[in-house]
Structure formats: structure tokens, C-alpha cells
Protein 1
Amino acid sequence: MKLHLRILFLMFMTASGPLAMGQTIPFFGKVVTQDASPIPLANVLALDAETQTIASFGVTDEEGKFKLNLRESKPYLLRISSLGYETMEREILAESNAPSPMEAVLASKAYELDTAEVVYELPVTVSGDTITYKADAFASGRERKLGEILGKLPGFEVDENGEVSVQGQKVSKLMVEGKDFFDGDTKMGAANIPANAVDKVQLLKDFNEITPIRGLDNDETLALNITLKEGKKNMVFGDLTAGAGPESRYLAHANAFYYTPKFSINLIGDTNNVGEPAFTIQDYFRFSGGLGALGSQSGGRVSFLPDDAGIPMAQRNNAVELQTNLGALNFNYKPSSKWSHSGFLIGSQTDNRMASISQRTYIRAGDNDEELTADNQVAQQSGILKYAATYTPKEETYIKYSLFGKLVQVHNRTSQWSRFENFDNQISEDTRQRPYTLEQQLQAFFTPLEKHVFSLETGLQLKMQDPILELQATERPFGSILPLADRELYHVWQSVAVQTYKQETLFNYYYLLNPRNHLNLTLGSQWTGQEMISGILQRNPGEEDLDPGEAFANDISYTFQDHFAGVSYKTRINAFVFSPGMNFHHFRLRDQQEDTENLTEKNMLLPHFYARWQPRSSQSLTFQFKTEAEFVDVQQLAMAPVIKDYNSLFLGNRNLQNGLYERYNLSYNQHNLFSAFTVFSSLSYQRKRDDLAPSVNFIGLDRVNTLIHAEQVNESLSGSFQGDKRFDKWRAKGRANISAASTHNFVNDQPNLNQSFTQLYGVSLMTTFFKKLDLETGYEWMRNAYSSGQAANSFETNKPFAKIHYAFRPDWMLTGDYEYNRYLNKGTGTDSRFGLLNLGLTYGKKDSPWEFKASLYNALNTQSISRDSFNESLISTYAYFIQKRYLLLSVQYNL
């Protein structure tokens, strides 16, 4: 039987396994007060009468109802508790022919005892906007890091990059004992915090660390707080790992943690070449220090080109070689109740190699297909630091100063071989850059009077980008555009320097009319100044460099100013919250290049609206509408050509101003502890008027790109659904993501319509057999369909997968994860099939700090995987070569 068919068989066996293990029946009940009023959020435990362990648990809903899954004809001790009521205990026997649901009446407590003896800790407790999960109630004991525990909590999802989502919403901050962990980064926490140190996971809804404005904004931020077990406080804990294998494979990793009420420090060190990057280039560019753009909250912003543009992003599933080194420190110090200091320092180094073969279909008439073989070697050294000081002399005052900086050096060497029509072109690109960012921010919030709240936020940023490109090719690059001298090997050199200064100030005044109504007045400004210098030269060995002239050099200065005032109103009517508002903007744009100045001023009114319906704490429906004006940065205005790739030039357009975007979002979530069911769904629609449309002109294979304002409206619609349901010993999950977009561009000066439709559907089933075997099986189906002018194609991926943790003996554990991929290129009829399998065998005694492991990566020795992409000028399908099979032997010591 083929391996992927065996996986499907395992999925069937998983679904039928709980039935074979013993018959369970639902046990229903209702918890009420002495006057028959329902008691919501009461905790219900069923204890096995023989072993005195928790057999099942639940939480009552708004009507006081609960449901437990119990073994038929087995005695249990039912324990029901709720804050402010006496705990009730009753012996029960679950029977399939039992009469109507039982009713439990709790008596009110006349007084509270000074001390209480806690015999059992509840797996889930709810208090206001905080849900607390007892980690040991969901863990099997085979978990190694925090991320593995989070993945087993109801409604939680940890993606392959380590980022955490709950009920479909991304978690914005992670704390340990109430202190930020590397600026709240969930990936750093999920991958490094030892699982055996975690006591509870607290989910904090509508989180805001700033007390004076808590509940005043519409920011539905999610945060996680990890509380540690008593044995892990006031002492050093963590783990040390070292491993080696054939062909010079190595791994070394160290985590050390120390927590006290006043001081905490976290140290992380890692070096390996086995494809386990502790910190990637993506992570570097993702880290922002938590300093968000203040002015963009009002709806007006500059869209800066990203620092990582053109840098290949290597990951374990698309790279031939990955070598990473990391050293990181995080600290929190609270010398008094008024002052706290925090910060982190991260230093990283990576050397990655990516190799691929791609089939590129250009959106143009004639022969459109190019075969491109590429080999990329990317080396980077980076550093990130942050320091923050917070002063809170009283609850009504909050002042915080933050300093954030990052610097990276990236060297990308690319060798390519292009075959197009009857031409072969050998290409070499060498790109070096050292972008850096330095940013400061001051936040101050005051509540001088009970109904009046004031805030002042200001930020200053300095940013530098300086890519240098050296391009060599056997075919003349941009033959009819760049005036190059004839050579057997063409050598073109380009330098670009972009310096950005940015200053933002935001003032808010909140007037609390009453607990259900408040008014918010906003004043603010943002100023951005940019300078860009670029030039192109032809370099010839033994000869003087050839300068094509001023027409191929940029020297431009650009300023963007935005002064705005806004008003919004927020009211609560029963289960509804409404918050309409608008911002009035005065924009001023000025660019100077080619000895001329271009000045534009305009006024705009940008409305926004927020509404939320929350009939109960576990259910909500949210609608958001926002209008945004998005302006370009200096690189999109510079009129002299800039080389983007071996066959792609970009010309700026100084007549560009802004696109006007309308964004609508409707989301629904339900987290029902009564039925152990979680669902999240969202629907987003975006309408872009005066959008910045790409315009591409083909000269042979060469592309000349620019931006113009599109008269047509660009639209996109996306929807997502995630569901999570627990049935006794197993858990079922399903998800769906659909996205459709219709955009306009110009190809060879002719209007062109681009359409894309992507779909992803996935289901999975998880269960634990006999407390020894954790098994997850699932299936994903994805389809990407693209059409544009002369070209159209669709790609389909079918992926069954399985993950297993099997403790086949008391001290031995087998782990494995497998996925089978069938990738179909409908345009060419290509049918690519590949499987990825990783195996691990671990030995470690229960009470010993030592653990030994043998890991076999890519056990099937798969050579390559398939992917696809789409943009305004071409459709591409890739075969990425990946790391070959290798073995690693490692030892871990738990501190």
C-alpha cells in the first residue's frame, strides 16, 4: 500500500478509535441559584471514583447548562463550583437511559474564608476577558516547548513559522509572569520556553497595558501570559542541547531563564546547519520593536517599499542549505512600583543557499515561456536592540519611552541560466546592502479628572537603504534602453541610496460622558523627508567605466506632510457597541528632481466606523469600515531607471499622488466551553479607487515597469473559516480560506485585467490512545487560478499528512511527521509528487534531566518541492531543491 494511502487509513482508524476504546455517553445538567436563576461560567468536574483523577470537565454557558462525556455505568464524583457560591459535590452514575438533565442548585456564600485548601485545579477558568488554561490538563507530558502545548489548547493554532493565533485572530503579545518576552514575540516564546516550566496559559482579550485608556479604543488585541510552575520561580531553568551527525551536521542550543518579581532575564543561544533556524531574515525584517506608525491610525500613510525587497527568503522547506547562529538576551527590571525597565538584544548570522528551476509565462503576445535555473547564496549578519522605561506613579498616569534600532548586512549572490526562444543567457547578480533603522517613541497618558483622559504620543525615525547591484550577463541587458558598449560579457553596476526621516505626533482627548458613552477628539501630524541618489555604470576590465549620463541617474528630494484632526464617538447599547468617526486631513507633497519642483496640496475627509454585537461573552460579531489614503515614497517618484532584476527596470512617475482605499471587514467568533466548540469566520472586501496600477512594456524579454493611476476600480474579496470541536478524547479541526481579486494594469500601453482566485480547505483529527500515542492526521487541498491578458493557468495541491508521538516503552518515544504532496500544473499538465518524512527516537528516564535523541530528517530523500506565484507581468511555477536526507544524534540536559 502506498504511503499516502496508509495515511488515509490511519485517519479512518483515528476517527473510529474512540468508539473502539470504550463507549462514552453525554451527561447533561444545569446549574442554578436557589431562586432558579442560571449560573454562567461555573466549573464542573467529574472525578473518577476509583482513581480520584479528573475524567471530564466543562464550563456552564449563559443558561447555566453543561455537558460532560462519561463512560457508561461508571461511578463519578461530580464537583460544581463558582465564585460566590458554595461548592457542591454529588455522586453520579452515567446511564444512557437517564431521565431529563440533572439540576444542581448552588447556595450563596455568606462569607469568604481567609484561607482555602485547593484540592483540584480547574482545567479552564473564565474571569471577565481572561480565559485561563491549566497546561497539564491538555498536555500529555511528551511536549518539549511551549508551542506544542499551545497547539493542544481549544481554539489555538501555531503555524509553521511559530506564530500563534486564537479563534482565527493573531496573538499580538506574549508575556511570561506578566513581563514581555522579547517584545512579546510569539515565535521566540513558542520555540524556546520549556514546556515543563509552564503552569497556566492566560488568554487576555481586548488587551491594553495602558490603564488610562483601557476600554476606550476599538483595538481587539489578543495577548498571552504564561505563568510558571512554583518550582521554576526564583531559580534558573532551561535546557542545553548538543548534536552532531554525518557530513559535518551539527546543532547546539541553549535556553536559560530566571524570574523573580523584580527582575527577569532570558538568554538564548543557537547554532546549527540542520535547517532549524532559530532566527531568520524574515524575523529580522518582521521585528518592529512594537513601535507602530502613529499617523497611519488616522487613515493617511506613506507606503514605503520594504527593506527586504529582492532578498530570497530561505526556509527549511525551500532551501538546499541553512546555517544559522543566534545570540539573544531579554530582561525586565522593576526597581519600584513606579518604574520598570525592559529591553532585548538579538544578534544573528545566517548563510543560506537556495536552488530552483522555474517555468515563467509572461503576459505578452508571442512566445511567452522562459525556463530559468537559479542558485542563490544569501549571507546576513544582523543586530536588533530595544530599551524601554515605563513610569506609572499612579493608576491614572502612564509614561513610556522606547528606543529601538536594527542593522543588517546582506550579501546575495545569484547565478542564473535563462532559456527564452532560441537564446541562452548566463546571468550573475551580486547584491550587497546594509539598511538600518533607529527609532524613538514617547507615550504619555493622563487622567487628571475622573471623566477626562489625555494622551500624547510622538515618534522619530531615521532609516537608511543602500543596495549595490553588480549584474553580469552574456546577452545585452536592456539593449535598446541602456547605451552599453558591445562586449562578450556585459558588466553593469548600480548603486542606490535612500535616506528617510520621519516624525509623528498624535494627541488624543477622551471625554467620558458616562460609563457607556465617550467622545474622542484627535489632533496629529506626520512629516516624512526622503532623499534618493542612484546611478548606473558599465564596467569593463582594463578600461574606464562607461557612464550612460544623467538620464540614468537619480537625485531627488521628497517631503510628505499630513496635518489632521478627527472625532469619534463610542456608545454601548445593551449587547451592541457603535463607534462612528471621521478624520479631516490636509496633505502637502513636494518633490524636487531634474532642477524642477512639483508641489501638491489637497484636503480629504476619511470616515471610519466600528460596530460590535456581543450577546454573550463567548460570542461576538464585529464590523469595521475604514477609508485610507495611501501615498507613494520617493523610490516610486524617481524618474530615472533603476534595475530591479536582470530583465526588469523600474521608472518612477512624479505625477503619482495617492490611492483611495475602502476596507470592509465582518468577523464572527464563538468560543463555547459548554459544547467544546470554537469557530471563527471573517469576510473582507477592499475597493481601491485611483489605485496605483503597474504598467509594463516588453522589449523582447526585458520589462520596463512604472506606476500610473488606474481609472478602473480594483477589488478584492477574501473569506476565512476555522472550526475546532472536541469529542471526549479527540479533537477535530477544519479551515477554509478563499480569496478573489480583480485588478487592472497596462501591458504594452494596453489595458489589461488580472484575475486570481485561490482556495484552501483543510481538515484534521487529533487523538490520544491509552495516554501513550498522540496522533494527528489531516488533509489539505489548495488551488490557485490566475488569468491575465494573453496568459492563464491554474495550480492544484493535494496534501494528506500525519504526525505521531508514540511512547512505546516507559523511557522511549518515537516521533514522526509526514506529508504527501501532489502538485498539478494544469497549464502544462505537469504532475509532481513528493513526500516529506521526518523521524525521531528519544530516550529519557522520567526523573532524569538527561535526554538522548536520534533524528532522521527528510527520510525519503525528496529532492525538490513545487510552488507557484503570480504578478502583473508573469506567472511562475517553481521546483525548489531542498536539503537531502541526514541523521543527527543529540543530547539534551534540562537545567
Protein 2
Amino acid sequence: MTTAAPSIQQELASAGALLEAQPEQALARAEAILARGKVPPAEFLACQALRRMGRAAEALPRLAALAKSQPRVPALQWELAQAASEAGATEQAIAALEALTRQSPQVSTGWFLLATQLRKAGREQDGWRADLSGVHAASRDPELLKAAMAMNGGELDEANAMLAARLSRIPEDAVATRMLGEVQWRRGDMTTALDLVEKAVAMAPGFDLARDFLIRLLLQTNRLPEALEHVEVLVRSPVKSPGHELLLASVLVRLGEQERAGAIYRKLLTLQPDQPQVWQNLGHVLKTLGDQPGAVDAYRAAVTHQPTMGEAWWSLANLKTVKLGPEDIAAMEQALVALEPEAEERKEDVFHLHFSLGKAYEDARQTEASFRHYDAGNRLRRTMIVHDADEFAAEVRAAAETFTAPFIAAMGEGGCPAPDPIFVVGLPRSGSTLVEQILSSHSQVEGTMELPEMMIIAGRLQARVEEGHFPDFASMVRSLTPADRARLGEEYIERTRVHRKTDRPLFIDKMPNNWQHVGLIKLILPNAKIVDARRHPLSCCFSGWKQHFARGQTFTYDLGDIGRYYRDYVAAMAAYDAAAPGAVHRVIYERMVEDTEAEVRRVLDYLSLPFEAGCLEFYKNDRAVRTASSEQVRQPIYRDAVEQWKAYEPWLGPLKAALGEVAETYPAVPEGLAVSG
């Protein structure tokens, strides 16, 4: 712009200082300068003041004329764009912003405003690209880089302060907003993190990395329909990425839409067949759908492309009806040797290989070698998870001591009256998948999967105790009014609706850990049914110990821990049986094996359902099954697994000691058993 005389510069500085707080005064002073002659900086100041006074349409022609005479001034193009945007002159705003981003491509705010205007003009893909250019520009912003370094270095308070300060100056900064959301996530504040990342995506819908992060946060909080909505937007990005397709497939798997997920994996493998992770994911889908030969081929393709891929070997070994042969054992032993130099970084591959070799040697009846590898896998995995047996026992005891008969009576009626849910609870490897498969073969019952919703609700309530809102668990539960209980029950019904694919009136939630919450279940869903699947403690615990679970079940990686867990479970269920007789129906696995029809009739009577012969031919049910027993429940009941633990008895001393008399009296409960400390 033209250099003004010193006295005019002083006047301009004085008027400019009034711009934000007193734009009317700033305008008056700028117009006074202009009355004495043509002064472009004063004209610019007048236009700025007009826009801040809400008179953008009045400022627009003056700014356009000024920009025409001085086209290479970025600040002028920015003001013109802002005025045009506010005046509804979208095309004029786009032209100004395109000029600005050509001149100053490093200014992210210009790109983001351009994206907004392009969308207003219906140019969705161009707007998306502008957002991506804005993100790219922000990646070189020194202030944001400094905040990112602090965040990645674990200095979360410092990063939080820097980002908050920036947002106070530039509240529409989508990149800083997303980063602040990540800081809150790292702090463990999921609610605030979600709010911030959702805000960032709303500011810049083409901010692919923010939407990707949002999808992962939604998955962590089990908000699956919202995750699907966002990932279906993400796959339409003009910047194509196989990662977007993989994320869509992951969401579909979580929603039980296995066929759609499988189609995505196949498409990706057609384009690039040497992707072991995608082969493994396809194997998981085919296993769930009951296509065992296809699953075997997919897992073998994964280990062919990456012989040290422990999870793929375990996925193959975990197909309970598949036996790994001498060549497989040699390949896995060789993979362990190859991993030795990087064993610390590749722990997951190492422990998966140990579990796989444990299963392979078990199938070969080399029991000592089998136990050695199972033990090595469990010991390594135990170092990677957190499980405090004492703390867990205290939580179980608190629940058992809360839901006494007088307490239940005092709470009275309440909750959501929906009769839909059937909770199948117990320990993993207790026969719960068999029970689920039998019941889901009934015309009135739909099988879903292990649903986390009840655990999420229970965890949220427990957090209120841990945050100091209540002195103890009992006080928190006692505070729940009938309306609270109804709301929580309705929340459960609503959150699980996405997993129901048929119009059958009843559905199964097979999350085994829900035994910890039977009191809460009956409090908020009084008409729900609870089936407790129980198996001999040595058989069940040993089977769980030699099974690596994809997530959760942190108590299974130590024989003492799993024995204590089983004992706590038996004691807690005994306490609830005494407090609410008949509320829970127990299925003893060994009885189900010996006299299937009688046990099926008993459980159907408990559920008030008529007997159907299809329940005895459960293995013909082609529904998707996602647990470790998916192949076993697709064949008639067999007795081979009932006493598999006996071959390993010489090494099960810690398990026997932890179980105590629970193992000796099974299926009866030891008299006077209390939750162990």
C-alpha cells in the first residue's frame, strides 16, 4: 500500500486501536482521513470497521475496488473474502481466497475459509481438497509444531496451555482443536476429547485425519452407528487411502456386517495381494461366517507373506478343529529364532507364537513342550497387562455385599420393563458359546455377540464412586431412583439395538464378564433373563489360560489369577442366588454334554419358551459366531474337551491352590463360601 505521511500514520494507528472494541469510532476517524484525500490504508481501515459493525455488504464494493488496485496484498484479500462471505457473495469470496492461497499457501486459515465457501457453492470435492491443503499448511506452523512436540513428549499440561492460548486467538482453528482433543484423550478425558474432535470435523469436514481419529474414539466408546456414518464419509475422500477402506471394514465387523467387510478385504487383496494384515482380517471374517477352509487359506496366506506374524499363526492354531503339523511347528520355531534380535519390540508376535506352538504341541500330544510354550506365552503376556487380583476381589465383594435380599426388597420395583435381553454369563471357555448357539437356534431368540454395553454402564456408575461422588458402591446403587433405573435400562436397550438384525423378540448378550453385574442387570432390566454357563473349574480355567484373547480377560494369563477369578465368580453368584433365588438359571456344561435335550428343556422352561427341535441341531445354524469356539459349535456336541486338563495336571499346582475347595465340591458350591480376599 502507499506510504502515508507520518501524521497520518499516527492517526491510522490511533484509529486502528479502536477497531475491535469501538468500530464506529474507528470508522469515523478513517472517514475523516479520507475526507482530506485518497489514502488506501484509511480506506482499508474503514472497510474493516464496516464489516465489524455488521455492514459487510457496504464494505464489499469498496474492498473489491481496493483489491483491484492492489491485488498482491494478502491482508486485503483476506478482508475481501471475509466481507464477501458475510454478505453472501460466495463466488466473490472464493475468488479472493483463491488469490490469497496462491500468494500465501502457508496460511491455513485461508484454505479453511476457502473450503467453507466452496461447499456453499456446491463444490464438495474442491472444498475437501482445500481443507486438506489447510491441514498441510498447518503441519508447518511453528506454534502448532511446538505444541505437538510437547504433546508427544508427554508434556500434556504445556501442550494444553499452548493450544488453549491459540484457540483463544483463533477459535476456528480446526487443527489446534483436534490437537487439543488428542491432549484430552491422552489425559483420559474421553468426553471432552470427543467433543473437541467432533468440533474440529464440523469446522473442516475435509480434515481426514481428524475424522479418522474421531472414528477411532467412537469405536472406543462403542458408538458404532456414528462411527459408521463418519467412516462412510471418509472413504469418499478425494485422497484415496486403503486405510480408509480398512477402517470401514473394521467398523462393519464390529456391527456384525461380516459379508460387507469381507468384500472390502477381497477388493484390497485383488489390488495388492501381498498384504498379510488384510489376509488375516479376511481370515477372521471367514471364520466368523463359518467358512473354515477359506479362513485357513487366508491365515496361511498371511504367514506366507510374513512368517513372523504371530497373530496370524495363532489365528490358524485357534481354529479348534485345525491341527498344525511338523512343518508348521518348524516354521514357528524358526520364526521365534528370527524374532530374537527384536524380541522386545515384537512382543506381540512372540507371545502369539508361543501360544500357537503350545496348541501345535498339544495336538501332537507332546504335553511337556506344549505346556512350556503356553507358559512362556502367558508369562510374557502377563508383563504387558494390568490385573490386580486383590483389587478385583474387593470390587466383587462390594457388589455381593450390596445386593442382599433386604437391599433388593428395599429398592422395590423400577427399571425398564423390556423382556428382550437374555444375558449368558460365566467365564470364557465355560460353554457359553454352546448355550448361545443352542438358544439362538430357537425361532424367538436372536444371537448377537459379546456386547460391551452393560459393562460400559456399570463402569460409568463405578466411576462416580472413584471420583468421590459417593463413599462406596452401595451408596451409589442406593441413590438410583426408579426413574434412573428405567433410564439406564432404556439406554441399554437402545444402545444394543444396532446389533439386532432380525425381528425376533428376544436377543442374547453373551458378554461373559457380565456375571459381575447380575445385581445391576436385574435392577435396571427386571424382566431380563440371566443364564450362567458353568464348567468344571480345572477344565474351564486351564482352557482359558491356554487361550489368548484378543482383548480384555486380563485375569487369564496366570494360573493363580485365573483360579482366584473363578473362585470370586462362584462366591458372588452364590451370594446372588441366596439373595434372589431363581433369578439366575445355571447350565452345567458337563450335564449339557451328557444329556443335551434335558438341559435344553430346562433352560427353555426358565425362559418361558416352548421346546423346539432346532435347538438340538444348533450346529446347523449358520449365524456368525465371533468367539474362540466358533468352529466347535458348528458340529454336534463332543466330549473330548471335558478332561483335557488332566494331561497337564503335574503343572497345575498354582491353579489348584487358588481354587481350593471350589474344585473339590464342583458342581456344588462349598458351604459358607465368601468372596475371597
Protein 3
Amino acid sequence: MSIWSRIAHAFRPGSLDRELEEELQSHIDEAVESGRDPEEARRAFGRFLQTREQSRDIRVATWLDSLRADAVFGWRQIVKRKVTSGAAILSLALAIGACTSAFRLVDAMLLRPLPVADPGSLFVLRYEVLDNDDKKDTADSFEYPLFRQLRTAVRGQAEVMAISYASQVDLTFGSDEEMEKAYRQYVSGWTFETLGLRPELGRLLAANDDTKPGGHPYAVLSHDFWKRRFGGDRNVIGRTFRQGTSTYEIVGVLTAGFTGTETGTMTDLFVPTMMNSKAIDNPNWGWFRTWVRLKPGVEGEQVRQKLRAAMLASRQEKAKAWKSPGAKHRTEQYLNAAVSLESAAAGVSGMQQTYRRSMIILGVLVALVLLIACANVANLLTAQATARAREMALRVSIGAGRARLLQLVLMESALLAIIASALGGLFAAWSAPFVVSMINPPDNPARLVLPADWRVLGFAVALALAVTILFGLAPALRASSVKPASALKGGEDPHSKRRLMHALVAAQVAFCFLVHFVAGMFVSSFDRLANQPVGFPPDRLVLLDTQAKKDLPQGTWDQALEKLRTVAGVESAALATWPLMSGNAWTSGVWANGHTPDREQPVYFLGVSPGWLATMKIPLLSGREFRLNEANPDFAIVNEAFARRYFAGQDPVGRTLETSGAKDKRFTAQIVGLVRDARYGELREAIRPTVYVPFNSKDDNGVAKGTDWGAFIVRTSAKDPLQLASVLRREVSSGRPELRVSDISTQDALIRSKTLRERMLATLSMFFAAVALLLASVGLYGVLDYSVIQRQREIGIRLALGARSNDIMRRVTTEVFSMLIFGAFIGLALGIASERYVETLLFQVKALQLSVMLWPAVTILGASVLAALPPVFRAVHIDPASMLRSE
């Protein structure tokens, strides 16, 4: 009989039994028909049941049949104990779903390879820099003149590609009134060929498209953008669109899958690097990453050394022009910067750097929640295994081996894990996109690829198997080690079971304490960061980022500003280079009162119009605001931090400062005002010295010059400033059609965007802490309830002999609560040790702070008391008479 027939018979036991019975009966009937006595014929076949089972073993795969039978029996056990099974399934489903969701996020952001040929040979060049606090960091922005030298240095050993940061741009396929936003990347013409990509339609960019600045205005669309924007129209090839002052022709569409190299951003269109003509020959404009693909057989270290040498030669040449007093110190830092090649198999993005550690921490938290859930279910199953001791003893007595009992109990655990995994998968399908929506603000959301493919399926299967072993093995070993004689007499030692359950309680409490400890640090960090002073009231401020097709004189911008001030509902309006805390920064060295840029941190600069201070409601402490006829770099207003650093806190109004321009030319500005400190950059950094200069500016020769971008800052009388958004957008362009609002936001939203990571960590960690607390409480309740049931006769006798209620309470809870305290101390030690791994995510919070340590202790103690009340209440209300009658 074939193996497939034996497997098929394992899933049709009823039909097979009927066929065997009919076949055996037919043989008996034939013997009777041949003249034999019916009883003699039956005796000749032996015992009917035994013969049928022997025949059945020949026709069926016995191992599969036993698994099927155990699965059926396990399902009956699950259905029989609906409440217990439901609690186990829901707790496991929540934990498994959280783990699967965390894996999907970590996989999409950090692990999933780019859909290109041999992603393992892709690297990105990075170099060492000092951050604002003089701590070592790395950067990856490069200038095109240097890129040419790098490519020449490793020619024949590696292919070097320039791929810009993905940026959101305004473009139009029709009139200027039909502007839309899309994500664009500049790429070297040979990038697609190097990555092994193919077109769905048309052709891709080639090396010949990337030779002349502004000479080849071609674009390739991503498959996703083609489907979303054009509905898959195959006639899109040859269509044109305008972006800025350039008109591009669409020459191709990429195949599905590749959406750019920046994880978290789906690039819509790709254009040659030479189309960024303003930056091609600028040696000081870093605007792209340098990607490196190693040739087969070439060592990465060899290529890195050559790239390092090329960078050093370029920097040495550039440093020769530095003649400022601080040039020596700056040159040493510049020339000694370390260079590294970092793997780019999974893409490269700022989001990866920002959220890498956060994703890992969240993964650890959900793993701890899973362990708590497993310990919880293991306790429930251990209690059930104890209750089934007589059943197991009977099975052993009639010949069942230990392996057979292990299989029986593990099959029930596997069924629980499979059902929980299915429900957890549904939870993960919702929760992973939900977490992604928390990462970036609505106007610039993270876009991660979260497919439910073989990677996710493989993780889910491996997780279900691991969970089955984690919570099912201990109860299975306990059940399979039963001693028939002792169990049938009721002589099993109940204390041995409770020791295992108490140990699991200690583990649950330790993990729960750790989760609450870390969650408390994250919540405290978010609270302190979100309440950092910004120096101005951000409510009712609407921000209009505005662009022009070309540099426009100050008068044009002033006319649009005056138009906005006449709009109903506008209290005041002003112009700035960009809004405060927008993420943009203009820094420069300053000479003032004997101080030089040699050892000083760079100073923030911002161009503002007259009336900006009043609109922002930043108090003017001394001096005056700018006047209409004043221009940068002749006049300046400084903040308190500037006065403290450069003038020892004295009033600097009437004094001067100097800044450097092109070719290290120095300019002198008169300080005409002193203002209160206002936050320019990130919430995590201290408010730095800031110099405000007139929005109107002059070039190095003193000639007035225009600008093609700026931000209108409008304070409204309405609580919701976005109510005026459409009106303000229309008014900017109505008077001056050369101006166009590219983005509208509020100052409140801008500030909230600075705490996105912290808000996500605080929210999710609190959710996991609540789940962990619930699971630990259920586990504690289960152990105490089981303990009371096991000891109810003992308790009844003690009550009959005059024991007090508080004595019963102490006896019931002492052992469990001692394990709770032990677990809490273990959790506290783990929490203190965890600080070193999460300290970069914290803000003004330390693990040894009393509030951080008390939060989990008080929470877990309160939950434990609530969980203990029902079992204790049951214990002290046991009826001694009924217990003695039972004896």
C-alpha cells in the first residue's frame, strides 16, 4: 500500500473502520457459507477488535493517525474549558500579534533587502563629524566635485553612484494651478544598470543621460507612482511635466518592487544628477549619498582605503583656503575624520538612523510580553495537568509511554498556539500600519512596504513553534512524569506543582517590572521633552512656505505680506527665511567682543522682516525691531544666549559683530536689539545663541538681491489657524502670481513633530506595560486560586480548629507574595541595567530616580493585591463543616 494511501486513510478513520468491519464480516460470512460453524469461524479470526486494529495499522500511517487523534482530543479539551482556553488564547494572541507586528516593522525598516541584483554588495560611504555638542557622529552627504574624484579612485574595483536624498517637490502635468507633490531622487545615469533593474515601459536612465548639466531633462517613474497617478496608462511614455524651471520628459517606468533607496519613503520619479545644475560644480554643497557596489572578488577594506585617500586629498586642497583664526583647529578635525563603508543592502535613510534603536527596544518589550504570556499559559496548563493526574495515570496503566503523553499535551498546546497565531496575525495586520502612522506627521508620512510574504509567514510559523515549546513543554513534562500508583491513590505531592507555578510567577513579575520600568522612563522623557519651553506662544500661528520661479526683489515679497495683513481674521503677519523649529538651519561663525569662531559653537542665523518679533510674540528686551530700509548684513538682533556668551550677559545693543561671507570676507553688523531666548532647532538641545538679520539682504558688493523662497508667518484670531489656510494661500498668489505657497502647516504641528519618536515610544510602551500587567495579574490570580483549591481541606480543618482569617490569608499568600517580591527585585536590577541601552532615547531621565523606580513597584503591587482578593476571599469563607464531611 502506498504512503499516500496510508496518509489519506489517517484522515478518514470512520470510513476506514467501517470498511475493515465489512471486510472481516465478509470473511466470516464466506466461512459460514462454506459449511463452518459461525462461532468456530469467529474464533478462527481471533478477537474481532484486535484483528481490526492490526489491519488498521497496516493501512494507515500510525504516527499521523495518533497526531490526528490527539488533535481531536485536544480540541475537545479546549472546548470543554471555554473560559480557561479563551483566556489563554487571547493573552497569547495579543502577545503573538505584537511580536509579529514588531517583526514586520523591523523587517521593513532594517532587514528587508532592496529588490535589486545582489544587494549584499551595496555599501554607502560615511565619514566622521562632530555634532552640536562636540560628540562624534557620522554623516553621508557629499559634493559632486568630490564624487568625481571618488569614482576615479576606485574605477575597476567598484562602481560608485550618486543618489540624492528623496525630497518632496512640486510639479505639474498641466497649468501652474494644477500643482501636485511627488518624491524625487537625483541618480547617476548608470545607477539602474548597476543595480540590475529593468523597465516595465520605455527605457531607464543611462550614463549618456548624465553628462551635461541641465542637458538631459528625462525622468523615470516608479511603478507605484505610475499606477497611482496614471492608472497604469501605457501611453505615459513621452508625456512631460514641469518641476521648477525645467520641463522633463518621461522616458520609462520601473518594474514593480523598487521604490527608491530611502527606506520609509517611496520615491515617485528619478532624474539625472546633472539636472541639479546649481549644485554640480559647487564644492560646498552636500546633497547626495555616495553608493558603492563592489566588483566580484574585491575586498571592501581595499576600496575604503582608496576612497579615504581620495577624500583626504580633496580635503587637504580645500583646507588650504581656510585663513580664519580658527582654521588650524577646524582643519585637524576635518582632515582626521574616519571614513567607513556601511552595508546598504536594506537601503539607507534618516528614518533608519532615527528609529533603529527604537524599533529594537520595542522588539525587546514585545518579546518580554510574549514571555509573560507564555508563563501565564504555562501556569494554567500546569494546573490543568495536575487536575488530569488520574487521567494520565490511567493512560500509563494501560500502556501509554511517556513520549505518547508528551505528544498528547503538546498537541493541545500547539492548537492553542495556532489559534492564537491566527488571531495575532489579524492584530498584526492592523497594528503595524498603525505604528507606521505614528512615525511621521500627516503631511509627510512614512511609507514602508509591509507585505505578508514568506518572510512574515516563516516568522509566524517559527514563533508559533517556539511559543508551543515555551508554554507547553513544562506542563507536558509534568503530565508525562505521573506515577500511576501514587496518582490513583491521590498521593501526589501538591507542593511540587506549586513550586513550578511560583517560579513562573516570579518570572512574570520580573519581566512585567522591567517592561513598566522602561515604559516609565519613556513616558517621563516624552513628558519632559514635550513641555520644554520654546520662548514664544505657538498657538494660532499658521506657516506658509512660499516659492518663486526666480529670485524676486524684496518689494514683491513686501506687497504679498501687506496683502495678507488685510485678510479678515489675521492679527499680524511677517516674513522669515523659514519658520522656527522647521528643521532648517543657517549657522555661521561670529567675531564679537574678542570672541572668535576658533573654539565656539556656530551661531544660528535667521532672516526676518519688520514685525516678525511682534507676530511671534518674542519679547524685545532692549533696542528696537528692524526697519523697512535695513538689510542684511548691516544690522542684527541677538538673543539672550548670544549676549551671555559674547558679552557676559551685558546689554549688547549698540555694539557690533562680524560674520564671514564668500571667500572668508568679513562683514560688520550693528546690534540694534536684544530679545528673549526662543528655540530655533531641536527640543533636545539647549537654546543656542541666535542672530536675527533683516529678510532683505545685499550681496558681497552691497547690491540688493532677491530671493526665490521664504515663509509667511501669520498669527490669526481663530483658535484653529488652518481655517484660513485656503484664503491665505489664494491671497499670496492673487496679488503677486510669481509667488506660490508650496506648503501650509501650523507652529503647533511643527513642535509636535519634534516629539514623534518619543510619543510613539511612550504610547506603545505604555500599551505593552498595560498588557504585561494584565497578564501578570491573571497569572497571579490563577496561582492563588489553584493554591486555595488544592488546600481547601487543610484550610477547612484550620478554620474548624479556630484559625483566624488573617492567619489563613497569610498562609495562602505568603509564598506567592515572596516570589512576587523576589521577581520585583530581579526586574528592578534588569531595569537599572537596561538604562545604558536606552539612554540615547531618554531626555533628562535617569534609572535611579525615585519616581522611575516607584512607578512599576506601586503599579504591580496594586494590581497584585486586586488579583489576590478573590482567592483570599474564597479561602476565608470556606465552610469547615462541608470540608470535614467531605473527609
